[in-house]
Design goal:
Layout: E1 15-21, H1 25-36, E2 41-44, H2 52-56, E3 63-66, E4 74-75, H3 83-88, H4 91-100, E5 105-107, E6 112-115, H5 120-132, E7 136-138, E8 143-148, E9 159-163, E10 166-175, H6 190-197, E11 202-208, E12 212-213, H7 216-222, E13 229-235, E14 241-247, E15 251-253, H8 255-270, E16 277-280, H9 287-293, H10 301-305, H11 311-321, H12 332-343, E17 345-347, E18 351-352, E19 360-365, E20 383-385, E21 393-394, H13 399-412
Parallel strand pairs: 1-2, 1-10, 2-7, 10-20
Antiparallel strand pairs: 3-6, 4-21, 5-6, 8-9, 9-10, 11-19, 12-15, 12-18, 13-14, 13-16, 14-15, 16-17
Helix pairs in contact: 1-5, 1-13, 9-12
Bound molecules: dihydroflavine-adenine dinucleotide (FDA).
Dihydroflavine-adenine dinucleotide binds near residues 181, 188 and 388.
Length: about 425
């Protein structure tokens, strides 16, 4: 049952031990343990509906974690940063919580866990955990200003928060305002601005897990392939992902491409040159050996390829390359060239479809400025950053929520 959120009666002018800005995945997961420890907690969010990203995630079923989670599933300028939080609050811990709340779930490819019924169950669970910690809410509320207070020793009041629902003071201020993906449901650069206000550096944000665009001349050539999905292995300067890829009217999409997009974008960490995305159209198959085995076949090459590729794709791909003869009319050297193209079809994107279509944001608050154990800023006692606002970006597959839960929980035990 969906219950109506009751905002705090009138929290204006109150002091809270912990004020958390952003009542999304990380904010709620951090608020509950802080409240359950006896801290007074206020969650502030400018949205009118609670946790929209959780609600729309995983096609409405929320891929809430993954059975196998490790640092290798994350991108960050400091790949070791995630270790501590991920090991202190694991996927198993979150699965136990989901079980305790009686939420049924199932496993899909690669250990991804989804609700059987609806993502709303995860939102209700997080809210119930917050209620258990007597967390208060100011929502919808826009924060106008945050100030660091000088005289903290006696009162414990370190931060003053001015919002349109009143002003609050806090001993701990937690920024859980997420990244920039999907601005139309409330994503803002708020967290980066606060970091900068306190002199904390931000790794340049960019859209990640995002469809890639291709230049017009490539799109024109690939038009006959549009709309066809096939399983591939794709990579770009990073791990190889074996999942579906899709040629679209704007470029490339599908899970394999979304995964690779994060690494393609990450190139800008090193410089701005654009590498191609490498696509193996026949994953797990020795294309050269297979084609040479069929070197005497009288069938059209496209018909042979259609044994392993979607028929429409096989024909359009052969047309594209001008390989329209029967297999036995190709010389062995030509078959080797064709095999090499099947095993590594390089396509150089022109860009991405941007934050409007991205699932997450690459970059964010520089982890070198934060304690990996508590998420507290090293230079500003009492200031914490959790979730996607931090320079930690997970692969597709439940890893971004697991980071939100783990970083939120680590902070909730400390703030
Ligand atoms: P999150 O975005 O959840 O919350 C931030 C909160 O801060 C929001 O409630 C927002 O309103 C609020 N806020 C922002 N600016 C503010 C301001 N100025 N003042 C007040 N409040 C402010 N991941 C995964 O692991 N499995 C999945 O299935 C999916 N699926 C998915 C689908 C789609 C379409 C998207 C866009 C994303 C996903 N993700 C995902 C990614 C996942 O949703 C994301 O990484 C987490 O929600 C991040 O959690 P945070 O709490 O950090 O931010």
């Amino acid at each position: 049952m969906v219950r109506t959120l009751t905002p705090a009666a009138s929290p204006s002018g109150h002091h809270f031990d912990v004020v958390i800005i952003g009542a999304g995945a990380a904010g709620m997961r951090g608020a509950a343990p802080a409240g359950q420890r006896g801290r007074s907690v206020l969650l502030v969010d400018h949205a009118t509906r609670l946790a929209e990203k959780i609600r729309i995630s995983g096609g409405g079923r929320c891929n809430f974690t993954n059975r196998r989670v490790g640092p290798e599933n994350y991108l960050s300028l400091n790949p070791h940063f995630v270790r501590s939080a991920l090991s202190r609050y694991t996927a198993r811990d979150f699965i136990d919580l989901v079980r305790r709340h009686g939420i049924d779930f199932h496993e899909r490819n690669w250990g991804q866990l989804f609700c059987d019924d609806s993502a709303q169950q995860i939102i209700d669970m997080l809210r119930a955990e917050c209620e258990d910690g007597a967390v208060q809410w100011a929502m919808p509320a826009t924060v106008h200003q945050i100030r660091c207070l000088d005289d903290t020793a006696a009162s414990g009041e370190r931060f003053a928060i001015e919002a349109d629902r009143g002003h609050f003071t806090a001993s701990s201020l937690v920024i859980a305002s997420g990244g920039l993906a999907i601005p139309k449901i409330g994503a803002t650069p708020f967290g980066y601005r606060i970091a900068e206000q306190f002199g904390i550096s931000v790794v340049a944000p960019r859209p990640a897990l995002v469809p890639l665009t291709l230049p017009p001349e490539t799109l024109e050539r690939l038009a006959p392939l549009a709309g066809i999905s096939l399983e591939v292995e794709a990579h770009c300067r990073g791990p190889v992902f074996r999942e579906a890829a899709l040629v679209t009217h704007r470029g490339l999409s599908g899970p394999a491409i979304l995964q690779v997009s994060s690494y393609w974008q990450a190139q800008a960490y090193d410089g701005d040159e654009r590498d191609p995305v490498h696509i193996d159209l026949l994953p797990g198959i020795d294309a050269e050996a297979w084609l040479l085995e069929h070197a005497h076949d009288k069938a059209l090459l496209a018909n042979l390829l259609a044994e392993r590729l979607p028929r429409r794709f096989a024909h359009a791909w052969c047309e594209l390359h001008g390989w329209t003869k029967p297999v036995n009319q190709f010389r062995h050297a030509e078959l080797r060239t064709i095999a090499a193209s099947l095993a590594d079809w390089p396509l150089t994107p022109s860009g991405t479809q941007g934050y409007a279509k991205a699932e997450v944001t690459l970059g964010g608050v520089d982890t070198r400025a934060l304690s990996s154990k508590t998420m507290e800023a090293r230079s500003v006692p009492g200031l914490y950053f959790i979730g996607e606002v931090v320079d930690v970006t997970g692969h597709l597959g439940g890893y971004n929520f697991q980071w939100a839960w783990s970083s939120g929980f680590a902070c909730g035990l400390a703030a």
